[in-house]
Input
Amino acid sequence: MTETTHVVVATDRASKGKEEKRQRLLDAARHLFVTKGYHETRPQDIARAADVAHGTFYSHFTDKREIFLAFASSAQEDLYSFVDSRTPQVDTFEEYIRYRLTAIQEFAEQNPGLLRSALVDTKLFDPTDSTSREVRDRFAAGFIVRLKAAYGTGELYDDIDPELIGHAMLGLIQSSAPFAYRKGQSRQEFVNHMSRFLTRALVKSPKGLD
Output
């Protein structure tokens, strides 16, 4: 093995080791932010839970805010992918809403405490951060596409603005889904309540909801 090869191998090992420690920090932060909350979690707590030196934390992240933004971004992507993969092609707006809401509640049940972090507006922590807006826009886009399709077929009221309502629905879910979970309401109860509310508000003649 040549000297150059030795250098490449050593560099590769160092890079993998650094990435492995960064992931351990992120995993520890995820657990602590969900179980203890943002304000009760300290960088030294994260380092201790990740089994790395306190100084190692600062070789990967500037401060607690930065690792929280990384955690929130990951949570948002997890939520988007989870819900999108469980929303099939359907014929009506009501069916779409039911699948979407069911998937959101499934995510909350499988990832206790994570939904609130996934839907947080990261601009509260960093006014320059665009991660939350980008992911939230992608999430709202699914509603908007479905609303536009339903509007085009005459399924919705004529005075509906699909883009405005799409973003409003995201805000509604952001508030109601974590509340329903904390309240102990079953997935089916939440889906039934919200789908009835949204369908009655938007669809001209919701069948079976009167």
